[in-house]
Amino acid sequence: MNTPAILIIDDDPDVTYTLSRAARHLGYAADSAATIHDALLKTTQKEFDAVFLDVQLPDGNGMDILTDIMDQPAHPELIIITGNGDPDAAETAISNGAWDYVEKGDSIHTIMDTLSNALEYRSDKLASRRVRQVQALRRENIIGESSAITRCLEQIGKLADSDMNVLLSGETGTGKELFARALHNNSARNKGPFVVVDCAALPENLVETILFGHEKGTFTGAMQDKEGLILQANNGTLFLDEIGELPLSTQKAFLRVLQERTVRPLGSKKEIPCNFRLISATNRDLDAMQTEGTFRTDLAFRICSATITLPPLRERRQDISLLIDHYMTLFFKKNKLSSKAFNPSVLTTLEDYDWPGNIRELVNAVEFMVSTSRNESRIFIKHLPPSLRARLAKNRITPQECTKEELPSNFSYEANNDDLPTMQEHRNAVIEKAEHSYLTQLLNSTKGSIKQAVELSGLSQSRLYALLKKYHIK
Which residues pair with 217 in a beta bridge? Predict the structure, then answer.
Protein backbone atom coordinates (compact mmCIF):
# COMPACT_ATOMS: atom_id res chain seq x y z
CA MET A 1 0.00 0.00 0.00
CA ASN A 2 1.39 3.40 -0.96
CA THR A 3 2.05 5.98 1.73
CA PRO A 4 -0.56 8.78 1.52
CA ALA A 5 1.01 12.05 0.38
CA ILE A 6 -0.14 15.29 2.02
CA LEU A 7 0.45 18.86 0.79
CA ILE A 8 0.17 21.76 3.26
CA ILE A 9 -0.36 25.16 1.62
CA ASP A 10 0.25 27.83 4.25
CA ASP A 11 2.64 30.75 4.64
CA ASP A 12 2.89 30.39 8.43
CA PRO A 13 5.99 28.25 9.13
CA ASP A 14 4.70 27.29 12.59
CA VAL A 15 1.46 25.92 11.14
CA THR A 16 3.34 24.12 8.36
CA TYR A 17 5.77 22.55 10.85
CA THR A 18 3.02 21.43 13.24
CA LEU A 19 0.84 19.87 10.56
CA SER A 20 3.79 18.23 8.79
CA ARG A 21 5.08 16.73 12.03
CA ALA A 22 1.65 15.41 13.01
CA ALA A 23 1.04 13.96 9.53
CA ARG A 24 4.40 12.17 9.50
CA HIS A 25 3.68 10.82 12.98
CA LEU A 26 0.59 9.14 11.50
CA GLY A 27 2.70 7.59 8.76
CA TYR A 28 1.92 10.04 5.96
CA ALA A 29 4.41 11.80 3.67
CA ALA A 30 4.16 15.58 4.01
CA ASP A 31 5.21 18.43 1.73
CA SER A 32 4.47 22.16 1.89
CA ALA A 33 4.09 25.33 -0.17
CA ALA A 34 3.87 28.93 1.06
CA THR A 35 2.30 30.58 -2.02
CA ILE A 36 -0.38 29.89 -4.62
CA HIS A 37 2.27 29.85 -7.33
CA ASP A 38 4.39 27.20 -5.58
CA ALA A 39 1.29 25.17 -4.64
CA LEU A 40 0.05 24.94 -8.22
CA LEU A 41 3.54 24.04 -9.37
CA LYS A 42 3.84 21.21 -6.83
CA THR A 43 0.41 19.76 -7.59
CA THR A 44 1.36 19.49 -11.26
CA GLN A 45 4.68 17.81 -10.46
CA LYS A 46 3.48 15.28 -7.89
CA GLU A 47 0.25 13.48 -6.97
CA PHE A 48 -1.18 14.17 -3.51
CA ASP A 49 -3.91 12.30 -1.68
CA ALA A 50 -4.96 15.22 0.52
CA VAL A 51 -4.27 18.96 0.63
CA PHE A 52 -4.56 21.47 3.47
CA LEU A 53 -5.26 24.89 1.93
CA ASP A 54 -4.99 28.19 3.78
CA VAL A 55 -7.32 31.00 2.71
CA GLN A 56 -5.04 34.05 3.07
CA LEU A 57 -1.80 33.57 1.14
CA PRO A 58 0.87 36.11 0.12
CA ASP A 59 -0.12 36.08 -3.56
CA GLY A 60 -3.90 35.74 -3.28
CA ASN A 61 -6.91 33.98 -1.81
CA GLY A 62 -6.59 30.21 -1.46
CA MET A 63 -10.28 29.78 -2.30
CA ASP A 64 -9.49 30.90 -5.84
CA ILE A 65 -7.43 27.76 -6.54
CA LEU A 66 -9.73 25.30 -4.78
CA THR A 67 -11.02 23.76 -8.02
CA ASP A 68 -7.58 23.99 -9.69
CA ILE A 69 -6.17 21.67 -7.05
CA MET A 70 -9.08 19.24 -7.03
CA ASP A 71 -8.96 19.08 -10.83
CA GLN A 72 -5.46 17.61 -10.80
CA PRO A 73 -5.30 14.00 -12.11
CA ALA A 74 -5.10 12.58 -8.56
CA HIS A 75 -8.24 14.53 -7.47
CA PRO A 76 -6.96 14.97 -3.89
CA GLU A 77 -9.27 15.44 -0.92
CA LEU A 78 -9.06 19.11 0.04
CA ILE A 79 -9.34 20.56 3.55
CA ILE A 80 -9.59 24.34 3.98
CA ILE A 81 -7.72 25.54 7.06
CA THR A 82 -7.83 29.15 8.19
CA GLY A 83 -7.25 31.41 11.15
CA ASN A 84 -10.25 33.60 10.30
CA GLY A 85 -13.54 31.71 10.38
CA ASP A 86 -15.88 32.67 7.54
CA PRO A 87 -19.23 30.82 7.39
CA ASP A 88 -19.84 31.89 3.76
CA ALA A 89 -16.41 30.66 2.71
CA ALA A 90 -17.06 27.36 4.51
CA GLU A 91 -20.33 26.93 2.61
CA THR A 92 -18.63 27.76 -0.70
CA ALA A 93 -15.80 25.32 -0.02
CA ILE A 94 -18.08 22.40 0.81
CA SER A 95 -20.39 23.17 -2.12
CA ASN A 96 -17.38 23.03 -4.44
CA GLY A 97 -16.29 19.63 -3.22
CA ALA A 98 -13.90 20.31 -0.33
CA TRP A 99 -13.82 17.57 2.32
CA ASP A 100 -14.05 19.97 5.27
CA TYR A 101 -13.33 23.48 6.55
CA VAL A 102 -11.37 23.69 9.80
CA GLU A 103 -9.91 26.50 11.87
CA LYS A 104 -6.31 26.77 13.04
CA GLY A 105 -7.58 27.20 16.58
CA ASP A 106 -8.85 23.59 16.57
CA SER A 107 -6.72 21.05 18.40
CA ILE A 108 -4.14 19.18 16.35
CA HIS A 109 -5.97 15.94 17.23
CA THR A 110 -9.20 17.29 15.72
CA ILE A 111 -7.40 18.43 12.57
CA MET A 112 -5.62 15.08 12.18
CA ASP A 113 -8.91 13.21 12.74
CA THR A 114 -10.35 15.24 9.85
CA LEU A 115 -7.35 14.27 7.69
CA SER A 116 -7.58 10.58 8.62
CA ASN A 117 -11.31 10.50 7.87
CA ALA A 118 -10.71 12.15 4.49
CA LEU A 119 -8.02 9.59 3.60
CA GLU A 120 -10.19 6.70 4.78
CA TYR A 121 -13.03 7.96 2.60
CA ARG A 122 -10.61 8.35 -0.32
CA SER A 123 -9.40 4.78 0.07
CA ASP A 124 -12.95 3.40 0.04
CA LYS A 125 -13.91 5.61 -2.90
CA LEU A 126 -10.97 4.48 -5.03
CA ALA A 127 -11.63 0.83 -4.17
CA SER A 128 -15.33 1.02 -5.01
CA ARG A 129 -14.53 2.92 -8.21
CA ARG A 130 -12.34 0.01 -9.35
CA VAL A 131 -15.16 -2.44 -8.59
CA ARG A 132 -17.68 -0.30 -10.50
CA GLN A 133 -15.53 -0.26 -13.63
CA VAL A 134 -17.28 -3.48 -14.73
CA GLN A 135 -20.67 -1.75 -14.49
CA ALA A 136 -19.90 1.69 -15.86
CA LEU A 137 -22.34 4.53 -15.35
CA ARG A 138 -24.41 5.27 -18.44
CA ARG A 139 -23.55 8.88 -19.20
CA GLU A 140 -24.63 9.42 -22.81
CA ASN A 141 -23.31 12.76 -24.13
CA ILE A 142 -22.03 13.89 -20.71
CA ILE A 143 -18.49 14.74 -21.75
CA GLY A 144 -15.69 15.58 -19.29
CA GLU A 145 -13.23 14.22 -16.76
CA SER A 146 -12.81 17.26 -14.48
CA SER A 147 -13.31 16.88 -10.74
CA ALA A 148 -16.42 19.10 -10.98
CA ILE A 149 -18.12 16.73 -13.45
CA THR A 150 -16.78 13.65 -11.68
CA ARG A 151 -18.45 14.78 -8.45
CA CYS A 152 -21.77 15.24 -10.26
CA LEU A 153 -21.51 11.79 -11.85
CA GLU A 154 -20.71 10.24 -8.48
CA GLN A 155 -23.90 11.81 -7.14
CA ILE A 156 -25.81 10.38 -10.10
CA GLY A 157 -24.42 6.93 -9.27
CA LYS A 158 -25.51 7.23 -5.63
CA LEU A 159 -28.99 8.62 -6.33
CA ALA A 160 -30.00 6.72 -9.45
CA ASP A 161 -31.27 3.59 -7.70
CA SER A 162 -33.49 5.49 -5.27
CA ASP A 163 -36.87 7.11 -5.94
CA MET A 164 -35.78 10.28 -4.16
CA ASN A 165 -36.87 13.58 -5.73
CA VAL A 166 -33.81 15.32 -7.19
CA LEU A 167 -33.30 19.01 -8.03
CA LEU A 168 -30.70 19.87 -10.68
CA SER A 169 -29.51 23.47 -10.35
CA GLY A 170 -27.11 25.43 -12.51
CA GLU A 171 -26.77 28.14 -15.11
CA THR A 172 -28.53 27.95 -18.46
CA GLY A 173 -26.74 25.61 -20.86
CA THR A 174 -24.94 23.45 -18.27
CA GLY A 175 -26.66 20.22 -19.37
CA LYS A 176 -29.41 19.72 -16.80
CA GLU A 177 -31.55 17.57 -19.09
CA LEU A 178 -28.57 15.32 -19.87
CA PHE A 179 -28.07 14.69 -16.16
CA ALA A 180 -31.79 14.09 -15.66
CA ARG A 181 -31.66 11.45 -18.40
CA ALA A 182 -28.59 9.91 -16.77
CA LEU A 183 -30.51 9.58 -13.49
CA HIS A 184 -33.35 7.88 -15.36
CA ASN A 185 -31.14 5.65 -17.54
CA ASN A 186 -29.20 4.35 -14.54
CA SER A 187 -32.31 3.67 -12.45
CA ALA A 188 -34.63 0.69 -12.17
CA ARG A 189 -37.15 2.82 -14.11
CA ASN A 190 -35.02 2.95 -17.27
CA LYS A 191 -37.51 0.75 -19.17
CA GLY A 192 -40.31 3.20 -18.36
CA PRO A 193 -41.08 6.59 -19.95
CA PHE A 194 -38.96 9.71 -19.50
CA VAL A 195 -41.37 12.64 -19.83
CA VAL A 196 -39.90 16.14 -20.27
CA VAL A 197 -41.97 19.19 -19.32
CA ASP A 198 -40.55 22.65 -20.10
CA CYS A 199 -42.37 24.73 -17.48
CA ALA A 200 -41.19 27.97 -19.11
CA ALA A 201 -42.98 27.06 -22.34
CA LEU A 202 -46.34 26.12 -20.79
CA PRO A 203 -49.16 28.57 -21.69
CA GLU A 204 -50.46 29.86 -18.33
CA ASN A 205 -54.10 29.21 -19.18
CA LEU A 206 -53.38 25.61 -20.22
CA VAL A 207 -50.82 24.53 -17.60
CA GLU A 208 -53.15 22.34 -15.55
CA THR A 209 -54.81 20.59 -18.47
CA ILE A 210 -51.37 19.85 -20.00
CA LEU A 211 -50.04 18.48 -16.71
CA PHE A 212 -53.12 16.80 -15.24
CA GLY A 213 -55.20 16.07 -18.35
CA HIS A 214 -58.96 16.59 -18.73
CA GLU A 215 -62.20 14.77 -19.43
CA LYS A 216 -64.34 15.27 -22.51
CA GLY A 217 -66.62 18.29 -22.22
CA THR A 218 -64.73 19.90 -19.35
CA PHE A 219 -64.39 23.12 -21.33
CA THR A 220 -65.11 24.43 -24.81
CA GLY A 221 -62.96 22.52 -27.25
CA ALA A 222 -62.46 19.46 -24.98
CA MET A 223 -63.82 17.03 -27.58
CA GLN A 224 -62.31 13.94 -25.93
CA ASP A 225 -60.53 12.74 -22.83
CA LYS A 226 -56.86 13.72 -22.72
CA GLU A 227 -54.17 12.14 -20.57
CA GLY A 228 -51.88 14.67 -18.88
CA LEU A 229 -48.08 14.57 -18.96
CA ILE A 230 -47.88 13.46 -15.31
CA LEU A 231 -49.92 10.32 -15.99
CA GLN A 232 -47.79 9.66 -19.08
CA ALA A 233 -44.81 9.36 -16.73
CA ASN A 234 -46.41 6.48 -14.79
CA ASN A 235 -43.75 3.85 -13.89
CA GLY A 236 -41.10 6.18 -15.23
CA THR A 237 -39.57 9.60 -14.62
CA LEU A 238 -41.15 13.06 -14.81
CA PHE A 239 -38.64 15.79 -15.58
CA LEU A 240 -39.86 19.33 -14.83
CA ASP A 241 -37.38 21.66 -16.49
CA GLU A 242 -37.32 25.28 -15.24
CA ILE A 243 -39.68 24.43 -12.38
CA GLY A 244 -39.25 27.97 -11.05
CA GLU A 245 -41.52 29.13 -13.90
CA LEU A 246 -44.47 27.06 -12.65
CA PRO A 247 -47.39 29.42 -11.73
CA LEU A 248 -48.24 29.65 -8.02
CA SER A 249 -51.73 28.28 -8.55
CA THR A 250 -50.31 25.19 -10.27
CA GLN A 251 -47.64 24.78 -7.60
CA LYS A 252 -50.37 24.14 -5.01
CA ALA A 253 -52.12 21.56 -7.17
CA PHE A 254 -48.83 19.84 -8.04
CA LEU A 255 -47.84 19.69 -4.36
CA ARG A 256 -50.90 17.52 -3.73
CA VAL A 257 -49.89 15.23 -6.60
CA LEU A 258 -46.44 14.82 -5.05
CA GLN A 259 -47.87 14.10 -1.60
CA GLU A 260 -50.57 11.64 -2.67
CA ARG A 261 -49.03 10.29 -5.91
CA THR A 262 -52.48 10.56 -7.51
CA VAL A 263 -53.74 12.77 -10.32
CA ARG A 264 -57.27 14.14 -10.83
CA PRO A 265 -57.81 15.22 -14.47
CA LEU A 266 -59.78 18.43 -14.91
CA GLY A 267 -63.53 17.68 -14.82
CA SER A 268 -63.03 14.27 -13.22
CA LYS A 269 -64.19 13.10 -9.81
CA LYS A 270 -61.67 10.25 -9.69
CA GLU A 271 -58.12 10.26 -8.36
CA ILE A 272 -55.85 8.16 -10.61
CA PRO A 273 -52.77 6.57 -8.95
CA CYS A 274 -49.52 7.54 -10.67
CA ASN A 275 -46.13 6.03 -9.82
CA PHE A 276 -43.44 8.40 -11.07
CA ARG A 277 -40.10 9.70 -9.95
CA LEU A 278 -39.67 13.49 -10.03
CA ILE A 279 -36.54 15.22 -11.27
CA SER A 280 -36.67 19.03 -11.41
CA ALA A 281 -34.28 21.61 -12.80
CA THR A 282 -33.85 25.35 -12.45
CA ASN A 283 -31.39 28.14 -13.16
CA ARG A 284 -33.16 30.41 -10.67
CA ASP A 285 -32.55 31.00 -6.96
CA LEU A 286 -35.45 29.15 -5.34
CA ASP A 287 -34.49 30.45 -1.87
CA ALA A 288 -34.86 34.04 -3.09
CA MET A 289 -38.14 33.14 -4.82
CA GLN A 290 -39.51 31.73 -1.56
CA THR A 291 -38.59 34.98 0.20
CA GLU A 292 -40.33 36.94 -2.56
CA GLY A 293 -43.39 34.69 -2.31
CA THR A 294 -43.15 33.46 -5.91
CA PHE A 295 -42.34 29.85 -5.03
CA ARG A 296 -43.99 27.76 -2.33
CA THR A 297 -41.70 26.71 0.51
CA ASP A 298 -43.55 23.42 1.05
CA LEU A 299 -43.09 22.52 -2.62
CA ALA A 300 -39.40 23.49 -2.48
CA PHE A 301 -38.86 21.00 0.37
CA ARG A 302 -40.66 18.30 -1.62
CA ILE A 303 -38.75 18.67 -4.87
CA CYS A 304 -35.22 18.84 -3.47
CA SER A 305 -34.75 15.80 -1.27
CA ALA A 306 -31.34 15.81 -2.99
CA THR A 307 -29.69 18.56 -5.01
CA ILE A 308 -27.01 18.30 -7.71
CA THR A 309 -25.40 21.62 -8.69
CA LEU A 310 -23.94 21.53 -12.19
CA PRO A 311 -20.79 23.64 -12.73
CA PRO A 312 -20.56 26.32 -15.43
CA LEU A 313 -18.09 25.62 -18.21
CA ARG A 314 -15.67 28.30 -16.97
CA GLU A 315 -15.14 26.17 -13.83
CA ARG A 316 -14.24 23.05 -15.81
CA ARG A 317 -11.94 24.45 -18.50
CA GLN A 318 -9.98 21.20 -18.84
CA ASP A 319 -13.14 19.64 -20.29
CA ILE A 320 -13.39 22.20 -23.11
CA SER A 321 -11.03 20.37 -25.51
CA LEU A 322 -12.89 17.07 -24.88
CA LEU A 323 -16.23 18.74 -25.59
CA ILE A 324 -14.91 20.36 -28.76
CA ASP A 325 -13.50 17.03 -30.02
CA HIS A 326 -16.80 15.27 -29.28
CA TYR A 327 -19.03 17.78 -31.04
CA MET A 328 -16.57 18.33 -33.89
CA THR A 329 -16.76 14.60 -34.65
CA LEU A 330 -20.57 14.69 -34.55
CA PHE A 331 -20.88 17.69 -36.86
CA PHE A 332 -18.26 16.47 -39.33
CA LYS A 333 -20.16 13.19 -39.58
CA LYS A 334 -23.53 14.93 -39.82
CA ASN A 335 -22.28 17.14 -42.68
CA LYS A 336 -20.40 14.24 -44.34
CA LEU A 337 -17.11 16.13 -44.10
CA SER A 338 -13.58 14.94 -43.39
CA SER A 339 -12.15 16.00 -40.06
CA LYS A 340 -9.60 18.82 -40.04
CA ALA A 341 -7.09 20.28 -37.61
CA PHE A 342 -7.18 23.53 -35.65
CA ASN A 343 -4.72 26.33 -36.08
CA PRO A 344 -2.85 26.12 -32.70
CA SER A 345 -4.18 29.48 -31.47
CA VAL A 346 -7.83 28.43 -31.80
CA LEU A 347 -7.93 25.86 -29.00
CA THR A 348 -6.00 28.14 -26.64
CA THR A 349 -8.48 30.92 -27.37
CA LEU A 350 -11.48 28.68 -26.75
CA GLU A 351 -10.04 27.34 -23.50
CA ASP A 352 -9.47 30.88 -22.21
CA TYR A 353 -12.97 32.07 -23.13
CA ASP A 354 -15.51 32.19 -20.28
CA TRP A 355 -18.49 30.70 -22.19
CA PRO A 356 -21.35 32.63 -20.55
CA GLY A 357 -23.79 30.42 -22.49
CA ASN A 358 -21.97 27.30 -21.25
CA ILE A 359 -22.11 24.06 -23.24
CA ARG A 360 -25.02 25.25 -25.37
CA GLU A 361 -22.92 28.20 -26.57
CA LEU A 362 -19.93 25.93 -27.21
CA VAL A 363 -22.02 23.50 -29.28
CA ASN A 364 -23.34 26.37 -31.40
CA ALA A 365 -19.79 27.70 -31.89
CA VAL A 366 -18.49 24.28 -32.95
CA GLU A 367 -21.31 23.83 -35.47
CA PHE A 368 -20.61 27.32 -36.85
CA MET A 369 -16.88 26.54 -37.21
CA VAL A 370 -17.58 23.29 -39.05
CA SER A 371 -19.96 25.05 -41.45
CA THR A 372 -17.78 28.09 -42.19
CA SER A 373 -14.55 26.08 -42.60
CA ARG A 374 -16.18 23.66 -45.05
CA ASN A 375 -13.86 24.57 -47.93
CA GLU A 376 -10.74 25.26 -45.86
CA SER A 377 -7.96 22.85 -44.93
CA ARG A 378 -7.78 24.00 -41.28
CA ILE A 379 -9.93 25.84 -38.75
CA PHE A 380 -8.84 29.36 -37.79
CA ILE A 381 -10.18 31.96 -35.33
CA LYS A 382 -11.81 33.62 -38.34
CA HIS A 383 -14.20 30.64 -38.49
CA LEU A 384 -15.66 31.39 -35.03
CA PRO A 385 -19.08 33.09 -34.79
CA PRO A 386 -18.68 36.89 -35.28
CA SER A 387 -20.40 37.66 -31.96
CA LEU A 388 -17.94 35.42 -30.09
CA ARG A 389 -14.95 36.93 -31.90
CA ALA A 390 -16.23 40.41 -31.04
CA ARG A 391 -16.40 39.54 -27.32
CA LEU A 392 -12.91 38.05 -27.46
CA ALA A 393 -11.55 41.23 -29.07
CA LYS A 394 -13.28 43.41 -26.50
CA ASN A 395 -11.85 41.36 -23.63
CA ARG A 396 -8.32 41.73 -25.00
CA ILE A 397 -8.45 45.52 -25.03
CA THR A 398 -7.82 47.20 -21.71
CA PRO A 399 -8.58 50.95 -21.78
CA GLN A 400 -5.65 52.88 -20.40
CA GLU A 401 -5.26 56.56 -19.66
CA CYS A 402 -1.57 57.27 -19.60
CA THR A 403 -0.58 60.80 -18.63
CA LYS A 404 2.74 62.36 -19.45
CA GLU A 405 3.75 62.34 -15.78
CA GLU A 406 3.30 58.55 -15.61
CA LEU A 407 5.89 57.89 -18.33
CA PRO A 408 9.51 57.22 -17.39
CA SER A 409 11.84 60.15 -17.86
CA ASN A 410 13.69 58.40 -20.69
CA PHE A 411 10.48 58.52 -22.80
CA SER A 412 11.55 62.03 -23.93
CA TYR A 413 14.34 62.05 -26.50
CA GLU A 414 16.52 64.65 -28.21
CA ALA A 415 16.63 64.43 -31.99
CA ASN A 416 20.42 64.09 -31.99
CA ASN A 417 20.50 61.57 -29.14
CA ASP A 418 22.61 58.57 -30.17
CA ASP A 419 20.63 56.42 -27.70
CA LEU A 420 17.30 57.05 -29.39
CA PRO A 421 15.44 53.69 -29.32
CA THR A 422 13.65 52.12 -32.21
CA MET A 423 9.88 52.61 -32.48
CA GLN A 424 9.36 48.97 -31.38
CA GLU A 425 11.56 49.40 -28.32
CA HIS A 426 9.68 52.56 -27.39
CA ARG A 427 6.31 50.83 -27.87
CA ASN A 428 7.38 47.85 -25.72
CA ALA A 429 8.50 50.14 -22.92
CA VAL A 430 5.16 51.98 -22.92
CA ILE A 431 3.20 48.72 -22.90
CA GLU A 432 5.23 47.25 -20.05
CA LYS A 433 4.73 50.40 -17.99
CA ALA A 434 0.97 50.31 -18.66
CA GLU A 435 0.67 46.58 -17.89
CA HIS A 436 2.57 46.90 -14.62
CA SER A 437 0.38 49.84 -13.56
CA TYR A 438 -2.82 48.03 -14.52
CA LEU A 439 -1.91 44.80 -12.71
CA THR A 440 -0.97 46.69 -9.56
CA GLN A 441 -4.29 48.57 -9.55
CA LEU A 442 -6.16 45.34 -10.37
CA LEU A 443 -4.80 43.49 -7.32
CA ASN A 444 -5.37 46.52 -5.09
CA SER A 445 -9.00 46.86 -6.17
CA THR A 446 -9.68 43.12 -5.69
CA LYS A 447 -7.70 42.96 -2.43
CA GLY A 448 -5.51 40.22 -3.85
CA SER A 449 -8.37 37.93 -4.97
CA ILE A 450 -7.14 36.11 -8.08
CA LYS A 451 -10.68 34.94 -8.88
CA GLN A 452 -12.04 38.51 -8.92
CA ALA A 453 -8.98 39.73 -10.82
CA VAL A 454 -9.61 37.11 -13.54
CA GLU A 455 -13.26 38.14 -13.80
CA LEU A 456 -12.50 41.88 -13.97
CA SER A 457 -9.53 41.69 -16.33
CA GLY A 458 -10.88 39.10 -18.77
CA LEU A 459 -7.53 37.29 -18.53
CA SER A 460 -7.28 33.55 -17.99
CA GLN A 461 -5.89 32.51 -14.59
CA SER A 462 -2.73 31.07 -16.16
CA ARG A 463 -2.13 34.27 -18.17
CA LEU A 464 -2.65 36.43 -15.08
CA TYR A 465 -0.12 34.41 -13.09
CA ALA A 466 2.37 34.65 -15.96
CA LEU A 467 2.08 38.45 -16.05
CA LEU A 468 2.37 38.76 -12.26
CA LYS A 469 5.52 36.65 -12.40
CA LYS A 470 6.90 38.69 -15.30
CA TYR A 471 6.55 41.97 -13.38
CA HIS A 472 7.45 40.47 -9.96
CA ILE A 473 4.11 41.51 -8.49
CA LYS A 474 3.00 39.60 -5.38
Answer: none
